[in-house]
């Protein structure tokens, strides 16, 4: 059963702010995609050369195109820093059929992107003010692999800091829809679908889990790689998200930073299973092996 509670006013305000900021960040991403589609339609392949077409060099080139500059030689010379090494490729990428029609669209998109940046900045400033009383929680939460300041703020906004409402990490995970469901039929237990959880929280945990899955020499990274091969990336991501949520519970409840278990935790937890796995791998390679335990000194 899901806990029913009304978060205190600071958490409700923080939730409104973080959700609206995320919506604006997503809108900014959609506008950036529209921009690239307009450029592709104009035959301008800037994104194939520049990693970030909205960086300083990219903005200079786009603004020049809007103002009427069409010469790829002139446009390519606007490149800065490391991008100058790609000037020959930029000349080819900027040789398109950019028209006044495209200039109007690009100009409008750039103006909207600037507007969104201003909104996101204002929201972030207000979030910093509202979350100040929970700053010590943020400092501890960001020690979780995959969790940055923005994700930490969203976790506090969505879950709150009163873990007594949930009682246990299992109840929190169940409420969040981040643990497998149970299905029993004819006396047999089968894995069932997870219940639906708060969509904003699940999106936040998914983002953090994907980032954690890419980390090196961490429990989270090892957990993701271990599960991805057997259950697929979606279930591996959810499992890591579950681990992040459990870590959040204990960090908030006990007021301690994240404790890294290490990438070899699974092997240390079940050494016999790890040994059998290695033996099977050697057998596949054509080796027969026997194990002799090392006597403790």
Structure description:
- The radius of gyration is 25 Å and the shape is flat.
- The protein has two domains: 124 residues; 131 residues, no CATH class.
- By secondary structure, the protein is mainly α.
- It is built from 13 helices and two strands; from the N terminus they run ααααααααββααααα.
- Helix 2 runs antiparallel to helix 5 and helix 10 runs antiparallel to helix 11.
- The relative contact order is 0.09.
- About 3% of the residues have low confidence.
- It has a two-stranded antiparallel sheet.
- The termini are far apart.
- The longest helix has 33 residues.
Q: What would the average pLDDT be, to the nearest integer?
A: 89
Order of helices and strands: HHHHHHHHEEHHHHH
Strand order of the largest sheet: 1-2
Overall number of domains: 2
Helix count, DSSP H or I runs of 4 or more residues: 13
How is the biggest beta sheet arranged? 2 strands, antiparallel
How many β-strand stretches? 2
| Backbone shape | flat
Structural class: mainly alpha
Rg over alpha carbons: 25 Å
The percentage helix is 55-70%
Strand-residue fraction? under 5%
Give the termini separation: 52 Å
Q: Note poorly predicted spans.
A: 181-189
Question: Based on the structure, what is the oligomeric state of the protein chains?
Answer: single chain
